[in-house]
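S2.1 Query sequence (ATP-grasp domain-containing protein)
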Amino acid sequence: MSRYLSQLKEAVTGAADTTLVFVCNFEVERQWATGHVGLPGVAVASAPAVVQRMEELGVLLAGPADHLLLKHPLDTGYLDYLTRLGFRVPAVLCPERTHPDRSTTEDALDSPDLLRTLRGLSPGARLLPMGAAVGEQKLADSCGLSLAGAGADVAERVNGKVYGRRLTARAGLREVPGHCCETVDELAEALGTLDAVGRPLVVKDAYGVSGRGLVVVDTPARAGQLMRLVRRRAERTGDDRIEVVVEQWLPRRHDLNYQLTVTRDGGVRFDFVKQALTEAGVHKGHLMPAALTGAHRAEIEHAAQSVGAALYRDGFTGVAGVDAIIDTDGQLYPVLEINARLNMSTYQGGVVERYQPPDGIGLARHYTLRLRATCPFDAVESALDRAQRGTGGRIVVTSFGTLNAAAPSASTAEPFDGRLYAMLFAPGRPSLDALDGAVRQALGRIPQVLEVR
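Output structure tokens follow.
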């Protein structure tokens, strides 16, 4: 078990040797959004197959005494690869009843054999979901397992962007100029400041995620168009509620993500800060360490302590991730939003501990591959071996199931997009960039691959 995992267990359960049952429910924010009135046209839908298969990222966080719930078993070639690398993987438990339109949690609740297995785990075992929604709370209750961290009601409340802005103000931290809007008229008033602020405004759905529920308003015409949609819905439903924040769009030098853990007794542990790589508001990966001055790092650590203390006062314990930015003038805005859950970075901790050189650099990212047919793991492993040969770097595949998850039925044989999640480590930035380029080229030579993006 990694030191990172033992520290996580101690923080969220009180004991470093607690047996955990991991549910890596990457679709949790879709569940939290249910019942909240956001921007028109932002529907809560089931997670795509590729997103569901991201749950296997948990295999490199969980320890050998833990259990990982997965909708599908790990690919045997990928499992052999992890074993050869020296990872001691958890026991994988799969529901016996699955449906493509259900989450793994929903499948588990409909699988008597799996529920029986979970009820028979050692006393003191705890359920650690990526984030606790109603389904995970029900699963824990059905199996007699306590949740490791906050319950569903607290986690959902903390994850809202309106909550995050108000916490930032209460904690006395620097805020992105903007407004919380909970009625149609409040949104109209906030958008009415567009000409005065002299820069675009961004309207964020309080429960949007990965670019969904985010609208950039840069002209009065665009503001009017959005307000017409919002008012039309309010008139149709007789309900003028809305949950959004409106903020000035700041030019950015760096996007950042940092993690803190609130312990059961109210202690706050600052875990790490990484440079987040994004494209059109969608997360693409992490660079570590982040390019920060000493002053920026000190300010982030102060913000983490302030945010964690406020979260604890509001009933939250467990892991939380915070998004931040440094603008082009070098000003740090330490809280853009609070994610009341494990983060992509959380699942990287054990790999970073094992492979990142003390003075080296790491990159966590995914490669989007356009495939003409399903791709076996040995083809990927061979390609990556060629890519890293002679570079002094290291590549570790952190999720393989996402690569073939969207494959169509054999009868159609249409091209499809898949993702390969990996972490790259190198002595410095030039060698890291060279390794990244070599990986892209090597993956592009796999016969099943049409394009690498």
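The mean pLDDT is 94. The chain has 17 helices and 18 strands.
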